[in-house]
Amino acid sequence: MRTVPACRGVWLALALIAPAAAQEADAELADPCRDPPVASAGSLDTVRAGLERSVCGMSRFVDRLFGGGHELAEPGQGNYGRAGLALGWNELDDLGLDGRLRANLALPRVDERLNAIFGRVSRDEFVADETVGIGPLAGEFSDEEDAAWFAGLGYGVHRGRRSRFDLGAGVKLDSPLNPYLNARHRRYFQPAEPWLLTLRSTAFWENQEGFGLTEAFDFDRALAPAYLLRWANSLRWSEQTLGLRWKTRVALYQALDHRRAQRYELFARGETDGQQPDLYGLRFTQRRSMWRDWFFVEATATLFWAHGVAPAERCHACPGFSIGFEMLFGEVYDQLLRQPQPAARAAYNRPAPPARLLRDPKLTGYHE
Predict the structure, then answer these.
(1) I need a surface site. Which of 5, 130, 259, 270 has the fewest CB within 10 A?
(2) Residues paired with residue 96 on neighbouring β-strands, in sequence order
(3) For residue 363, what pLDDT is reported?
(4) Residue 80 in contact with residue 329, Cβ under 8 Å?
């Protein structure tokens, strides 16, 4: 894992939000983004409420700035996101602290199909739509670069049951600023109930990487009420890659009960005109919700092989460990968490549809 000093911004943001959330409103006019205080709320609830309130306030500001001076009829509706922080060590990069934050802001006064996106994620995920990894350290051992701060806009041109088409534009908040554009088409196929095939095609332009294309395809198979097998793949070409940059990952998800889940993974990556592969390994992860349904703790053990160009980038059978937390916020995730969990379906004779299992935050931590 790489040490990322900028992750302190995520921790600082959460630390500043917590005391602000505990203050009572002194203004005469009620803040539509402020929920009534809960008498039994603890520190976790306070942090989450402050985070939701901050995202809601940002959404209202942008929405009113570009959509007119009207109050939102239902402020906060459609805003959601996740925040995570993890401490990890591996023999190649030593000890490191990494933080992730991704917030989706609804802009209904501008256009119901338009949303703003802000956070600290990897460029692979934000620009090129390579979401091979998941969890509070989604990009560990898979991203080409460290996570960075991004801000952008997304427009849903088409949102159907079987397909989606989105346009995006934004900027990497770096010096100098690094703008990007992308267009993404997603298609779902379900030849039989236990199977789900997802195809994603993304065309993008970024100031640093130039033009590029990403083709991703995921195969999901529900094996039992509490088991899901997933094979995730991506191919990327850009003006900077050596041929095709590829990533692949096979994962078996197991729901132990309504709070705990395990993940067993094999992963690899490489470039067709470079080292084949330059990284591969296996990983075991245990994920569980603690104290609240929306607060998750993950512990991961990894064994990997790296074949970089420089000697410092090479490692043979190197161990790695990490532990971190992830907090989900917003009504979108609240609705998912209120639905029956995989372990509760053990009495049924057939597996649940893979699309439902994939969207179970307790089981997979997967995010669209």
Answers:
(1) 5
(2) 88
(3) 58
(4) yes
Q: 10 Å Cβ neighbour count for 239?
A: 11
Q: Which residues contact 16 (CB under 8 A, 6 or more apart)?
A: none
Beta carbons within 8 Å of 207's beta carbon, 6+ residues apart: 178, 179, 180
**H/E element holding 255?**
strand 245-255
Q: pTM value?
A: 0.78
Summarised one tens digit per residue, pLDDT across range 315-344 is 899 999 999 999 998 888 888 777 765 544
What the block records as the tokens of 188 is 């779902």
C-alpha distance from residue 154 to each of 69, 122, 127 (Å): 22, 17, 12
Average pLDDT, the chain: 78
Question: In terms of C-beta density within 10 A (0-12 exposed, 13-18 middle, 19 or more buried), how is residue 61 classed?
Answer: exposed
Q: pLDDT above 70 covers what percent of the chain?
A: 73
Q: Indicate the domain borders of the chain.
A: 5-25+39-358
CA distance 339 to 316: 43
194 C-beta neighbours (distance < 10 Å), count: 18
Residues 201, 245: Cα–Cα separation, whole Å? 15
Given a contact cutoff of 8 angstroms between Cβ atoms, the answer to whether 211 and 125 are in contact is no
Exposed/middle/buried for residue 350 (C-beta within 10 Å: 0-12, 13-18, 19+): exposed
Cβ-based neighbour number of residue 149 at 10 Å = 17
Q: pLDDT per residue over 133-167, tens digit each?
A: 555 454 454 455 678 899 999 999 998 889 999 99
Residue (of 365, 359, 325, 318) closest to 141 by Cα position: 318
What is the fold, at CATH topology level, of the domain defined by 5-25+39-358? Porin (2.40.160)
